[in-house]
């Protein structure tokens, strides 16, 4: 864009000292007025005056032709004198007016203010048209003054106040001082103080307490005077004849035209063109826009024809400015954005809001500019805005296709634009051409720079970012001789303009350049504060934010540039002496750029942070700078690096549990088929961070954190605590030293002090001298939820448990072994009883123990467990509640329950094991199904064995072999046997649920347990048994072989008055008389069996129970209840009881155990036979034997066979049944009874003749013959009907069918009922 040729020599004197960076195109139409403060700084006093003056930034003037013009003014605070020299080149650079504002307290200060005002007039006297001075005097000592004493002053002020009433009537309401009093005060101030004689300017005097409402009117009059002077100069210029015009020169051109022929044609045209261009500038300032456009076009053509590049550029720039005034009038709304440097440094300066415009200001703000220097600190009063701050953005830009038109002085009618106006798209091209023409002159570098800035602002308004970038880039190539502050100012303006078009990266680059210029090497007074502020403002361009969380979330930008910028910021903060800022920025660097640094850089930065924090410790609180900027906290979330965070449940014995409450019966519907699965899934997803377990108020809780130290040296982490929200939580500090690159588990503890929901958000650390709040939601790259929600329930009491038994070496291996708090061990012999005293102490200092529930779990079956352990729960509950720090005791009774009946090996099942039914073994799972040695009372001779098998049916045998109990020795227990022959270990847990206080009301409790380890040693054991008939019919003999399995002598008490001693490891045989099982019990067992079969039938079960199974269980239970064998180890106090629970009986034993269903009535020789009575008869005498049977059972008896046998007992185990030659029976000795109904009687009579004398016995028995049921296929399926009525009809049929089925099953077994004892007959000789 810049031309290569340079057409003039460089002269430092002829070049402008510095550019006006605040200029825009519309300033070409403004009259320049210097607004200065004089005297000492009185910002609070003079601020209102400055604001009122700046409001009057335009006036309405009606010229001689009746056209209304709008004249704009620009107030500036500093104006270099050399800029006035360029007033012929561009008239808007001339300073035309001067207004000074000051405050005095005495005459001396007033004289000084007048002197400073006059010195400014002399300084700018070459161009100055008019000047005014506004002085504020001291407050009046007495506001009530006599009007008569100041009549002259009142008369002098009356005309001015009359003008105020006409032009500013709307402002009178704001004047709080009465009008008459106002006149008195003003008159007195002028009388008290007088201006020096050399003060030739007009001055306005006010008191500080005045409202000075007429100030704006007076300023308006002053601006009118300036306009009319300007208008007269324009008219004079317009009346000049072309042949008499003088050559207008730029300051540096005077040397170039020395000695040239000014009467040449080209020079005449040059003179005319320049004057025409100068007249166009004056017309633009005077509000004649149409005339100015025509003059600019004519001047441009004239100057272009003579090759006057410098002035051609000026005419092109004027065309652009005039067009911009018409197209973009909204650019005038940009307020004074910056305050001069020296006023900004004043402590007394404060920002005051600008009140609404009054008077003749038309609501527009002043178009003002500022300079970066000032003559004195007191030379200016303005707003306290930073010179490098971002200006107020202009209104929305106009597109090139839509043109906003404003009416100026009636020159445009009906919104029509002049025909010769530049189009919006042409303005950047004309600016480009003007800049090229300026670039040909080194002395016009300042003009070129300002033109580029004006073009930039127009392009911003036109939304042309590429053109903006082009013009700004061209500024960098302009070689200006300027001071370092001016260079910084240039970079700041470029930054500001780049920001307006959204080029944040370029803006940040130049902003950082400006920051570096402030503190570059060789600078005598480096401004580190300004440098820090500029670098902090460049964060946005580097895609950084002051909030490290936003940086981590966006993860954008250039890491190397960002790291370099933050390091520079840290250096600036250190130079400023702000150690806290330096520490904060270094923490910010480590937090945001940790992943972008190498391991070496990470280590170096960590060491630097440690050194910085040694001067000022870092804390996670915002820092507020002097200018109000807030630096958010930075946290070292990755130092140390959190790998995992786990919220721990409370110890098992302290975990809260819900107290189970029995649910009410809700009817037949156990569940609903409606499940909102989608809702359930959403709830689970939503509550993914909600902890399933509970914490308890006032109880210590734990969170486990797995940390890793990424640094190559040890990292000390101190004061590590949990971060929480919600309920009050008291966190305990933790200190840990982490080794390099080694994961370490750290446990953090705390106590919730209230009940409710606790929000665990993370943890806090203190490492490398920085306190950090490491929240889970800010830990990126890890699968951690944003927080954990834990429900805290009301406080629960805590208890301590102690037992009277010694503790075990190891705890329980059962389930829930983690709730065991203590243990106890005990060794007992089978059948022995003991007790354990358990003491419960309430360790809570404020909560009572109001609820205790005790239950026992063990590794044995529930039925056996209930026999082993017993607790008096009522006695325990009677001791509740337990006060704080109180204790209670209760007894646990322990009985060594065991199977005393020795099972036989599985291979030694009896031959008639099928007689027990298919379901028999399942009812006695702890023992073998059967297998008992036979216990014969008599052994027949070898010659008489044909009745042996029949007699053996009434006794249990092992493979049919005859074996004597006396010769039976203890047999080893097989692999499938019980542990009764050896020691047995039982593990049990006494579990206690307890609660109290508000937690009990809420339905929560705790559970702990006591582990019991019982060792049961074998004591007495029954190795074999048999059932024999007794001497009376109501009893039977239970013959047992009992072994002493202990290592000591045992005393055995098997009846009330019978004892026997058994040596260690020896056995003995004892007969025990037992009452038979009553017929009522048998009937009840049969009824229960029928009811169960009916239930099975209705529930579609195909397997029915046999009556023999129920009867066998009944007899076994009867024997276990009636027979208790007490034993005691001699020489000790160890004693116990052996139970016969689980004894298995054969069907023959069952017949002897139960009362016979037949009632016998036998008479011999017409005499009723009594038990143990002896009948006497003679040899050869016929004796009548009468037998009467009565059925006492609940069902008919079928297939009965009544048998009568006589035999002789030799009392040596031999019995002789071959008595054909000794006894004869007249009548049948074997009678068959097909059926015998309930309560039916049958009678059989026969005659007996004895042939030889002697002692005879008669065996009378009635046996059943087993029959297979032809109707064996019994249907067990449910009929086709499904309604209740059909089932009710079928129920009686099922009952009868089940009864028949039970009867048929019973008939399939062989039964023998004998008359006991046998009839003894003594036969004597006649």
TrEMBL record:
Ranges of biased composition (kind: Basic and acidic residues): 339-350
The keyword Nucleotidyltransferase belongs to this UniProt entry's keyword annotation: no
InterPro entries in alphabetical order: Ig_TRAPPC9_Trs120_1st, Ig_TRAPPC9_Trs120_3rd, Ig_TRAPPC9_Trs120_4th, TPR_TRAPPC9_Trs120, Trs120_TRAPPC9, Trs120_TRAPPC9_N
Pfam families membership: Ig_TRAPPC9-Trs120_1st, Ig_TRAPPC9-Trs120_3rd, Ig_TRAPPC9-Trs120_4th, TPR_TRAPPC9-Trs120, TRAPPC9-Trs120
Domain Trs120/TRAPPC9 fourth Ig-like, first and last residues per copy: 1159-1323
GO CC entries: trans-Golgi network
All residue ranges annotated as the Trs120/TRAPPC9 TPR region domain in the record: 467-614
Domain Trs120/TRAPPC9 first Ig-like span(s) in chain numbering: 652-763
Chief place of localization: Golgi
Start and end residues of each Trs120/TRAPPC9 N-terminal domain: 71-331
Recorded family membership: Belongs to the NIBP family.
The protein's name in its UniProt record: Bru
């Amino acid at each position: 864009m810049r031309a290569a040729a340079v057409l003039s020599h460089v002269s430092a004197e002829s070049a402008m000292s510095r550019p006006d960076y605040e200029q825009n195109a519309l300033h070409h139409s403004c009259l320049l007025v210097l607004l200065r403060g004089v005297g000492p700084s009185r910002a609070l006093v003079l601020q209102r005056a400055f604001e009122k003056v700046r409001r009057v930034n335009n006036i309405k003037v009606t010229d001689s032709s009746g056209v209304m013009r709008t004249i704009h003014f620009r107030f500036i605070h500093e104006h270099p004198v050399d800029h006035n020299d360029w007033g012929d080149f561009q008239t808007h650079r001339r300073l035309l007016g001067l207004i000074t504002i000051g405050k005095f307290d005495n005459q001396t200060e007033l004289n000084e203010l007048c002197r400073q005002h006059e010195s400014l007039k002399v300084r700018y006297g070459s161009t100055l048209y008019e000047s005014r001075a506004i002085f504020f005097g001291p407050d009046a000592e007495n506001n009530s003054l006599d009007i008569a004493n100041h009549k002259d002053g009142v008369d002098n002020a009356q005309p001015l106040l009359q003008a105020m009433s006409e032009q500013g009537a709307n402002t009178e309401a704001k004047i709080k001082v009465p009008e008459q009093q106002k006149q008195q005060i003003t008159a007195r101030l002028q009388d008290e103080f007088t201006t020096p004689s050399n003060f030739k300017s007009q001055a306005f005097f006010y008191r500080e307490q005045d409202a000075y409402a007429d100030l704006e009117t007076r300023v308006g009059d002053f601006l009118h005077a300036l306009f009319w002077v300007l208008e007269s100069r324009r008219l004079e210029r317009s009346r000049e004849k072309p042949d008499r015009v003088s050559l207008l020169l730029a300051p540096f051109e005077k040397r170039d035209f020395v000695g040239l022929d000014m009467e040449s044609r080209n020079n005449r045209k040059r003179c005319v063109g320049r004057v025409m261009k100068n007249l166009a500038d004056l017309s633009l300032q005077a509000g004649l826009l149409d005339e100015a456009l025509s003059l600019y076009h004519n001047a441009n053509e004239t100057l272009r024809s003579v090759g006057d590049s410098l002035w051609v550029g000026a005419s092109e720039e004027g065309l652009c400015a005039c067009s911009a005034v018409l197209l973009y009038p909204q650019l005038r709304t940009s307020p004074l954005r910056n305050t001069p440097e020296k006023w900004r440094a004043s402590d007394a300066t404060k920002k005051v809001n600008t009140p609404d415009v009054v008077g003749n200001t038309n609501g527009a703000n002043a178009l003002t500019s500022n300079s970066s220097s000032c003559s004195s600190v007191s030379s200016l009063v303005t707003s306290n805005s930073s010179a490098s701050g971002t200006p107020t953005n202009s209104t929305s830009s106009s597109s090139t296709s839509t043109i906003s038109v404003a009416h100026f002085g009636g020159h445009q009618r009906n919104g029509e634009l002049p025909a010769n106006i530049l189009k919006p798209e042409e303005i950047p091209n004309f600016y480009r051409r003007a800049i090229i023409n300026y670039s040909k002159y080194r002395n016009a570098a300042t003009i070129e720079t300002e033109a580029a800035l004006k073009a930039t602002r127009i392009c911003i308004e036109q939304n042309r970012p590429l053109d903006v970038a082009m013009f700004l880039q061209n500024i960098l190539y302009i070689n200006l001789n300027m001071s370092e502050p001016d260079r910084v100012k240039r970079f700041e303006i470029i930054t500001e303009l780049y920001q307006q078009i959204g080029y944040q990266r370029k803006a940040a680059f130049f902003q950082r350049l400006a920051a570096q210029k402030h503190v570059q090497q060789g600078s005598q007074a480096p401004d580190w504060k300004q440098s820090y502020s500029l670098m902090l403002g460049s964060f946005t361009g580097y895609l950084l934010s002051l909030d490290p969380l936003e940086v981590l979330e966006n993860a954008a930008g250039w890491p190397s540039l960002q790291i370099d910028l933050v390091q520079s910021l840290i250096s600036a903060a250190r130079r400023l002496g702000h150690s806290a800022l330096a520490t904060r920025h270094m923490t910010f660097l480590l937090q945001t750029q940790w992943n972008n640094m190498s391991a070496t850089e990470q280590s170096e930065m960590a060491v630097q942070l440690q050194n910085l924090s040694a001067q000022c410790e870092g804390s996670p609180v915002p820092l507020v700078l002097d200018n109000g900027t807030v630096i958010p906290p930075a946290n070292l979330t990755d130092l140390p690096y959190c790998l995992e965070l786990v919220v721990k449940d409370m110890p098992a014995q302290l975990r809260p549990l819900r107290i189970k409450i029995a649910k009410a019966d809700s009817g037949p519907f156990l569940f609903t088929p409606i499940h909102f699965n989608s809702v359930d899934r959403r709830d689970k997803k939503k509550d993914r961070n909600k902890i399933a377990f509970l914490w308890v108020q006032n109880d210590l809780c734990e969170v486990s954190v797995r940390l890793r130290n990424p640094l190559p040296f040890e990292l000390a982490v101190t004061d590590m605590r949990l971060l929480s929200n919600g309920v009050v939580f008291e966190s305990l500090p933790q200190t840990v030293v982490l080794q390099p690159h080694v994961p370490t588990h750290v446990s953090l503890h705390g106590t919730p002090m209230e009940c409710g929901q606790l929000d665990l958000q993370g943890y806090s650390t203190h490492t490398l001298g920085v306190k950090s709040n490491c929240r889970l939601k800010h830990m990126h790259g890890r699968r951690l939820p944003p927080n954990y929600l834990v429900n805290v329930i009301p406080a629960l009491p805590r208890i301590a448990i102690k037992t009277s038994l010694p503790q075990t070496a190891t705890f329980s291996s059962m389930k829930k072994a983690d709730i065991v708090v203590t243990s106890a061990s005990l060794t007992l012999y089978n059948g022995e009883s003991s007790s354990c005293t358990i003491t419960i102490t309430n360790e809570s200092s404020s909560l009572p123990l109001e609820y205790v529930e005790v239950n026992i779990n063990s590794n044995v079956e529930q039925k056996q467990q209930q026999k082993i352990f017993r607790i008096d729960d009522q006695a325990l509950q009677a001791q509740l509640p337990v006060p704080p720090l109180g204790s209670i005791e209760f007894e646990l009774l322990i009985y060594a329950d065991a199977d005393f009946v020795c099972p036989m090996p599985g291979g030694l099942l009896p031959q008639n094991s099928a007689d027990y039914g298919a379901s028999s073994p399942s009812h006695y799972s702890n023992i073998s199904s059967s297998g008992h040695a036979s216990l014969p009372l008599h052994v027949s001779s070898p010659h008489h064995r044909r009745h042996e098998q029949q007699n053996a049916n009434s006794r249990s045998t092992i493979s049919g072999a005859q074996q004597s109990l006396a010769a039976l020795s203890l047999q080893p227990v097989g692999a499938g046997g019980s542990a009764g022959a050896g020691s047995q270990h039982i593990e049990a847990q006494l579990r206690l649920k307890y609660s109290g206080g508000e937690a009990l009301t809420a339905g929560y409790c705790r559970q702990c347990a006591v582990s019991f380890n019982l060792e049961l040693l074998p004591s007495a054991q029954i190795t074999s048994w048999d059932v024999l008939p007794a001497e009376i019919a109501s009893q039977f003999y239970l013959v047992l072989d009992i072994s002493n399995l202990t290592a000591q002598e045992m005393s055995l008490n098997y009846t009330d008055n019978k004892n026997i001693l058994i040596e260690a490891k020896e056995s003995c045989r004892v007969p025990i008389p037992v009452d038979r099982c009553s017929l009522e019990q048998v009937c009840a067992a049969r009824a229960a069996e029928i009811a169960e079969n009916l239930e099975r039938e209705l529930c579609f079960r195909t397997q029915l129970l046999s009556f023999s199974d129920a009867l066998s269980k009944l007899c076994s239970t009867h024997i276990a209840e009636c027979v208790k064998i007490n034993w005691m180890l001699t020489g000790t106090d160890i004693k116990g009881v052996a139970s016969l629970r689980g004894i298995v009986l054969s069907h023959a034993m069952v017949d002897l155990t139960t009362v016979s269903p037949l009632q016998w009535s036998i008479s011999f020789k017409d005499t009723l036979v009594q038990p143990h009575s002896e009948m006497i008869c003679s040899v050869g005498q016929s004796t009548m034997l009468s037998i009467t049977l009565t059925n006492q059972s609940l069902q008919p008896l079928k297939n009965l066979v009544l048998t009568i046998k006589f035999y002789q007992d030799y009392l040596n185990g031999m019995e002789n049944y071959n008595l054909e030659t000794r006894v004869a029976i007249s009548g049948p000795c074997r009678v068959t009874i097909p059926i015998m109904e309930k309560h039916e009687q049958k009678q059989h009579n026969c005659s007996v003749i004895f042939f030889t004398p002697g002692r005879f016995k008669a065996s009378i028995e009635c046996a059943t013959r087993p029959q297979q049921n032809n109707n064996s296929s019994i249907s067990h399926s449910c009929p086709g009907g499904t309604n209740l009525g059909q089932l009710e009809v079928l129920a009686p049929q099922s009952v009868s069918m089940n009864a028949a089925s039970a009867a048929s099953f019973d008939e399939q077994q062989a039964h023998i009922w004998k008359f006991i004892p046998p009839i003894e007959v003594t036969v004597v000789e006649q």
